[in-house]
Amino acid sequence: PTLKANAEGREEDYVNLARALTSDGSGGSASLRPRAPSGKEFTPKQAVKLVIDTVQELADEIGIPRRLRDLGVEPAQLPELVRGSAGNSMNGNPRTIDDAELTTILEKLW
Q: Which of 17, 31, 47, 79 measures 20 to 30 Å from 58, CA to CA?
């Protein structure tokens, strides 16, 4: 949910990430993922999906849990997580996410 939420307004960044994920660094054939359909550029929608799928696959491969409950977080702790996320931990986020949206994201991740 976080990567999808952050894609809003940053589609070109995701297109650039998709290009990087499908390049071997020398302009040659894809090393991590398939190239864009028919050798054309990725649409923003395709790029967002590819980036999210790739990050999720990598997280699965290295054993990062997808759900907050798998980390021992209880539903009653979500409001505290939202309060604790204000400030420094959100400063690096590519867009502003208010408390209501963050609550929704955390609920989806629970």
A: 79
pTM: 0.70
Which 3 state secondary structure label does DSSP give 43? coil
73-to-41, 49, 81, 102, 107 alpha-carbon distances in Å: 40, 27, 10, 15, 11
Please write the tens of the pLDDT for every residue from 67-102.
999 999 999 999 999 998 877 777 777 788 889 999
List Cβ neighbours of 108 (8 Å cut-off, separation of 6 or more).
1
Indicate whether 29 pLDDT > 50. no
Helix (H) or strand (E) holding 14: helix 11-21
